[in-house]
Model the fold of this input.
Amino acid sequence: MKMYIGNLSFDTTKQDLESFFSQYGSVTDVHLPEDRETGRPRGFAFVTMDSKSAMEAAIEGSDGKDLAGRNIKVNEARPREDRSGSRY
Done:
């Protein structure tokens, strides 16, 4: 079950996220997107938990909490929009 984590400090690492969310259950994946040009983190991440109950506990327990000096926003990730096709 995948969560979106927003308002992250640019200094937050994958290890920080795994450690922070492991208190709610088993973390199976952490994706921390980086800017293509600068290589710096973009200020958000996706964290995957091993079960729906772990994800719900993580959302309930961490949304609005402080992580590295920032109050993070945590919610269930929405499916990615289809970007194929023309813009016109």
The chain has two helices and six strands.
